[in-house]
User: What shape does this take?
Amino acid sequence: MAIDPSARATETDLIREAQQGSRTAFDALVRQYDQAVLRLALHLTGSEQDAEDIHQEAFLKAYRYLGNFRFECSFYTWIYRIVTNLCLDLLRRRKSRREDQAVMLDSSGEEVDLLTNVSDPRASANPDRELNRKFLGERIREALDKLTPRERMVFELKHYQGLKLRTIGEMLNTTEETAKNTLFRATRKLRANLAELR
Amino acid sequence: MGNTMKCELAQEIIALAVYGELPDEQGPQLERHLAECEPCRRELEAVQALSKAVSLLPVEEPSANLIARSRLRLEEALDAVPHGSWLLRSWQRLARGVWRLRSAPVAVSGVLVIGLTAGGYSGYRAGEHAHDVARTPLSPVSSQSDDPLTDVASVSSIVQEPNSENVEVVYNRLQPETIRGSLDDPQIRQLLLVGARNRLNSGVRDNSLGLLANECRAGHQCDDGPIRDALMVALRYDKSVDVRLKALEGLQPYVADDVRVRDVVLEALMNDADPRVRTQAIGLLEPVQADSSVREVLHTVAIRDDNPEIRTASRQVLDQIPQVQ
Assistant: This one.
């Protein structure tokens, strides 16, 4: 993400002002990042409500702990660290909740996952493209949900948000190498889960 | 790595290639391998297909509604948070620590009593050492308590035994009392803290601070508040240059980890009247040169300090710092 020097200088000034107590400066900082944060949270969680909650918590935390920011990384990385941590928490909570869900058995005694879209894959022959796309979207979301929270996070940041592995490592407080390996695991799992989509 | 890439490696880096993360030098090698390897070509296609498939769940822009709602909710929550400059609050915290140290001896002797009750008498030889000051031999057990550190009014002398960790501290109670013990001993330290506040006898004050600073510098159990606070206060407020220099020495191990210490040292660099203090402060700040507050102060000092050597020294440290990307 290329930032020209004059823009960076302005952001530094804003941060300093905000650290000294300027609410206006903090609001301006929020404006620079809040759409991106919402976009990420929305795509990751699939829920407007969850996205709103993450947005709220993330910027409140930023406000409270702004004093701890000493410019040792970019502000962008710092904010995203907060956001990704909140997202990971949410993904973990969801995962454990889902595992507790009762499983239904259908007439033939087969387990039916209540959260699976039970549409017939042959619906891809359906001329209604909109429905088709929605169906595919759901299938992909399901496949993504089968990843571990960290795999999901790394994949989201890499594939959907286009961040570099190095940045992802910084945000998740790990190394580029670990992020890379997590990405590999995620793509392998996704390929297995999405095999029948072809 | 040889000229030919093996499938094992190729398979690993194909995903990197698809995501634009392939190191440049591996590009041509991968291409050559793919030209000759069918399974790996299929792998590349598979990863590309995945990439396409997964994009069928597009990233949507948050709706205007969602943005507005979120912003409004955040505004309300922020309005509810008590504000005030965090910097001001940090100084207030430090100032409160200062006040604690300056407060009445009653409070201090209270601390000493607690210390001694926990520690007991072992290791002390009290009242036997010859001393110029008129003294009375220590009466065995006073009617009030067995505690030799109650009602300490002041410390009147501190003498360190040469080449040892032992000090002899003469402190005033009802009569002058003497205690000998090691610098590691918490009771001795507490007495040194009292000594550090001695306004009348600068020799005692300097000595106390010097010994405390050495302890900190040597890393001997200086992790808690009072001793570090005492050094920070001394650095900020003491009239004696030697004391301030000693305090800096004592604080040196904590600059990296303790932001409060760093801030006090920065203040000294900006405001201390004596160039020796400012110079030493620069030395202390070198290891934390990545800190932007440090850089900013160095910039200011490099331009505005009266002393040309200090200006140069600041600039030199700055030049070592890699540019922030």
